[in-house]
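pasting for ref
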Amino acid sequence: MENPLPQTQKPPPFQTALLAGALAGTTVDLSLFPLDTLKTRLQSSAGFFASGGFRGIYRGVGSAVVGSAPGAAFFFCTYESSKSFFQSTSLLQQQSNGKNSEVLSHMISASLGEIAACAVRVPTEVVKQRAQAGQHGGSSLSSLTAILSQRGSIGLFGVWRELYRGWGITVMREVPFTVLQFPLWEALKAWGRERKVRTGRGMFGDVYHQPKNEVSAAESALYGSLSGAVAAGITTPLDVLKTRVMLSAQRESMFTIVKTILKDHGGSLRPFFAGIGPRVMWISAGGAIFLGSYQWAVNTLEGRSSRRL
């Protein structure tokens, strides 16, 4: 008897997205922290070696430990809840048909997820990147203390603004990134599920068994790596601007930094792609770890592991 074609996969419940997202975020940030440090130093206006070079590549890891789990959990809870909402209403179907509405759902859900995650991610990034660049002795705690100590001169609102310095450019970087990565990841997963139904086996040999038609963690990791690499390369200029905004000694607008970079480098666009190699490597590997571990956690928590014991 021929297997039926898979239906649109139902998003996991809130608790599953919360736990799986927290696990995925912590795993990827800690395992790839050294590459992130090198990328930050390559993009620093002070220069790679002046910012620490290859020394102390785990500077700032404390802020990553604190911020990774809640940031990723915020993202996936919002992302999966938004997907569930769009699947349960005809809001997008009225505007588009078939796969187009599904892609649009993934794009909007990913955008909302990133905005939610930035509430945690931006302060974490500010503290982490200053430590990575060797400021305040390369310590996350010292970097945070230095910001909080300004309360007397700039007030509580000023401290808040300093912690969220680069909010705008971070959202401008993250939203286009996820709008590229997550619809591509979801499309590859949908293709993987259809292939699994047709052939009876997953890409890595896991056996098809209805209703466990979700892709395996290894397959999700492969798709996450490919989609992450594409999105990372395209959005590198936005990442460069975000790093410069967060590391600048004084508050500067994104447009001022763009003009400064163009002026200092004779109008060349090359500085906007500084660190593209480590960034693509880091996010490609990170996409595999992040979305692979997320899928593993979801499959495990939901009892949807597609590999026969």
